[in-house]
Amino acid sequence: AEIDELAQAALFIAVAWVLGRVGRYFNSQLVGEIIAGILLSSDVIGLVPYQDGLLLLGRVGLVLLVAEGGLSVQLDLLPKIGLKAVIIAVIGTALPVGLGWGFMRIIGRDDIAAVAAGAALSSTSIGMASKVLQQLNELHTPLGNLIAVAAMIDDVLSLVILAVIQQLDSERDVWLLLKPVVVSVGFGLLGAILIRAVPRISQAASRLHPACKQESTLLFAALALIGSLTLAAGYAGTTFLLGTFVAGMALSTTPSVALALAYFQPLTEWLTTVFFVSIGLVVPVNQLFSPLGIGYGLLYTLPAFFGKAVTGAFAAPGQKGVVAAAMVGRGELGFLMAQEAFDDDIIDSLTFATCVWALLLCTLISPFLMKWQLEKQRKVEHENPQPDNDGVGSVTCADAPSHSNVHRVMICASV
């Protein structure tokens, strides 16, 4: 009956909200929401009204979340700390994939399944790291900037890997595997162009007609750009989320547009919750809590953890522990990669459960390690005060980088 479906929907929202807030208390809201999805799935409670509709809403939430990630990019920081951040991001992406592949080969998975499972370990949660840094008043420090930019580049690399993974189940055609990489490079170059073009178009439109300054107009234009690039990326042959991220990054150069999009923040939060709950809905519970699933999951946490923690070695002295802890945390892309590989029958249910365990545990561990390392660093700095520095080693540049410098970094990063 209709009233029963409404009751189910109300209970679904209540469980997702409560467990999300419990997770937020531990700086891991997404973990609470995934657990909510597991509990609500057909394997446990079976309280999932209109599952196909929920999955679609979850994807919309994912698009808004990735666009928000692009909007949060501080472009003026890229020339200053871009090189060190690129090194951290590349190593923090490649090493977990390699270690994950090795682990999966040891337990008998084929090369394609091993690569897909390893790729699920490649991304970093920029949102979680930023939240912890903000709580401790470190977000806008050189250390916070380094972590934020490294995590952003890490996410872009993970998006390219995701695009390749989506082709792994097809025939072994070299072009099919290279196409996502080529298209992704093209979208990186497009992003470099849009960084300069979007502010100029916005200013020209504002001079042309006063209505172009209205928030409703700005909001429509921003959503149109996000939607267009999202669809273009998907149809062109890379992951649609790369187009979303590029659109958000281009819009970050126009503060008025970013302000208009802020109205979507409450909606984005709810739809993001639906996305993480939807991941929990498809987790194979029987495999997740089987002795083999738990055992493999705990062991797989080791390459997931150390593959990221190694990146701390490339940070400035005194910041190594904080950077290592921040990079360990995982976000939406890792879970999405594992889910995509499972949905496409690239990995089996046991491998999927193993990935989920590793991602959940790393996401739980990271904020506690970050706080501990930051407190430890502050104690050392208090006892041994040092002269102010930029906190990013030997990578320096002009104090006020121009958009042309940003272009050079974007183009180099694309290559």
Task: Describe the protein's architecture and organization.
It is a single chain. With 415 residues, this protein is mostly helical. It is 75% helix and 0% strand. The chain is globular, with a radius of gyration of 21 Å. Helix 1 (2-25) runs antiparallel to helix 2 (29-40), helix 2 (29-40) packs across helix 12 and helix 4 (78-106) runs parallel beside helix 18 (403-414). Mean pLDDT is 81; it is low at 388-415. It is built from 18 helices and no strands.
In short:
75% of the residues lie in helices and 0% in strands. With 415 residues, it is mostly helical.
How are the SSEs placed, and which strands pair?
Layout: H1 2-25, H2 29-40, H3 51-71, H4 78-106, H5 111-119, H6 126-135, H7 142-165, H8 174-208, H9 215-236, H10 240-251, H11 255-261, H12 265-281, H13 285-288, H14 291-309, H15 320-328, H16 332-343, H17 349-383, H18 403-414
List keywords for this structure.
415 residues, 0% strand, 75% helix, 18 helices, mainly alpha
